[in-house]
Amino acid sequence: MIKVRIPTPLRPLTRGQGEVETKGGSVAEMIDHLEGMHPGLKARLCDEKGELRRFVNVYVNEEDIRFLKGKDTVLKDGDEVSIVPAIAGG
Amino acid sequence: MSLLSLAYSPWPIAHSLDMEFTDAQIQRYSRHMILPEVGGKGQKKLSRAKVLVIGAGGLGSPSALYLAAAGVGTLGLVDGDVVDLSNLQRQILHTTADVGVPKVESGQRMLAALNPEITIKSYQDNITSDNIMRFLPDYDIVLDGSDNFSTRFLVNDACFFARKTLISGSIFRFEGQLTTIKPHEGYPCYRCLYPEPPPAGLVPNCQEAGVLGVLAGTIGVLQANEAIKEILGFGETLADRLLIYDALEMKFRKVTRPKDPACPLCGSHPTITDLSGNYSVSCSI
Q1: Does A49 touch chain B (CB under 8 A)?
Q2: CATH number at residue B87
């Protein structure tokens, strides 16, 4: 099982949950799986072409997937995924 | 602990006397000076440091207060706003009596009351691509506590061109982020982390979103912590990490922040070579 940490701006879509669980596979598959459970999440993470938005980072454990294999990065059991959008409040 | 009890310290006050501190300064900074990692030399470094705080709001308030208390010799405060009653839930530089007063005015007054030994410069201005390069030459370190993406990308780019270390903090609802940006020392810039700001209208704006007041204190104080580490040259830098704080779960996490070879600003083939680009995006989170 893979844990996905949901940032506070997106928790209204996960009924307030800060952490959800998903299956293995690629990050792209994980996003589709999350969308199935929490409709609306994918649109916040990806643009119309399905590419990750450039102000949202996805980390597998501590690594930014943009510097791994992007959405093709493969997740393995026990991985922790963090979704981290840019925030600008001060 | 009274000052007298410092006489029993293994690092006596006399160690600092040759640093030309007044008795009042020795007393004021004694808890720093007895730290072997700081000492008189470190306190002198602090007194020579010049830090620009962008935004005298939620983040700028606690960071400026702690930097002033620490004896950072020159503090600059930039903010174009006046104090609003809705600011006071988190912007602790200002008091109820300051509503309607320019934030840099009430901020300067508060900081001077806390530490009259330091120089405080205030600029009642919104940061723009036309004025930012005028502020930066007078400072060593910049703290970004602004409240919108436009300013954050502008400050990042300007600090890159001016080769200034930038301590970036940001908050939203119950979540905070903190990182140190110094591409002039080979580390990544803010655009390596987030290449582009969100388009207008995609996410709630600042006033709709809300923020836990004390969260501003947590992240603002950590910005001051990182600034002091940069000045004193100790500890682990956050220049290749992003710190993420979740106030609800009380969790701090650090993730890697690699340099992006394709970064449009600090990459090998930059497309941003000055501040003439469009920095006008909406106030979004």
Answers
A1: no
A2: 3.40.50.720
Q: Using one digit for the tens of pLDDT, what is the confidence trace for B149-185?
A: 999 999 999 999 999 999 999 999 999 999 999 999 9
Answer yes or no: is B198 within a domain.
yes
> So what's the ipTM on this one?
0.93
- Supply B241's token pair: 């990490």
Considering the domain boundaries, does residue B272 fall inside one?
no
- Would the CB atoms of B246 and A62 count as touching at under 8 Å? no
Residues contacting residue B173 through CB under 8 Å, at least 6 positions apart: A8, A9, B209, B210, B211, B212
Asked whether the beta carbons of A58 and A81 are under 8 A apart, the reply is yes
Query: Is residue B19 within 8 angstroms of chain A, CB to CB?
Result: no
Per the CB < 8 A criterion, the answer to whether A42 and A71 are in contact is: no
Count of helices and strands (H, E) across chain A: 2, 7
Q: How far is B49 from chain A (nearest CA, A)?
A: 23
B257 close to A (CB below 8 A): yes
Distances (CA, A) of B214 to A90, B172, B179, B220, B247: 12, 12, 19, 10, 9
pLDDT in tens, B75-87: 999 999 999 999 9
Q: Is residue B275 part of a domain?
A: no
| Three-state DSSP string of B199-240 | CCCCCCEHHHHCECHHHHHHHHHHHHHHHHHHHHCCCCCCCC
Minimal Cβ distance to A62: which of B148, B170, B255: B255
Q: Is residue B213 part of a domain?
A: yes
What is the number of other CB atoms lying within 10 angstroms of the CB of residue A6?
21
Question: What's the CA gap between A33 and A55, in Å, rounded?
Answer: 21
If one counts every other C-beta atom within 10 angstroms of the C-beta of residue A72, the result is: 11
Homologous superfamily, domain A2-85: Beta-grasp domain (3.10.20.30)
The CA distance from B109 to B87, in Å, is 17
Q: Per the CB < 8 Å rule, is A55 touching B144?
A: no
Distance CA B209, CA B179 (A): 22
Measure CB to CB from residue B196 to each of A55, A87, A88 and give the nearest one.
A55
User: Could you tell me the pTM of the whole model?
Assistant: 0.92
Our count of domains for chain B comes to: 1
* Domain housing B191: 32-256
CA distance to A9, B37, B248, B252, per residue, from B156 (Å): 24, 30, 29, 24
